[in-house]
Input
Amino acid sequence: MNFAGLERRVTNLERPSDIQEDPLGAILDTLSDNDLGIVSEYGELVNAGFSHEEIEEMMGQDTYEKAQAIAALVQNELAVQQFAGAAYRTGKKPRTTKPRKISLHPR
Output
């Protein structure tokens, strides 16, 4: 029996997990209040059944594009979180378990 490997696995299980229970909440915490407002408005219009063309007309092209960029950022970060969780369960070191800070505001 390989006791060194078993001991390492037990040590890994005893360590606190870096995987957050609410990855969406952690990602949303990284957004500014303005970005949260934009994505909230976009989500409410989508849930109300408006077409993408109608939403773009209501929000304006710049705000609509920013809302789409924020939504894509959140989806990408959720995918990274899911990958990190899967890697943790398989024993591989995850790339990252914290949301990355990506600027949505061009300089």
User: Anything to note?
Assistant: The chain has a mean pLDDT of 77. The CA atoms of residues 5 and 11 lie 10 Å apart.
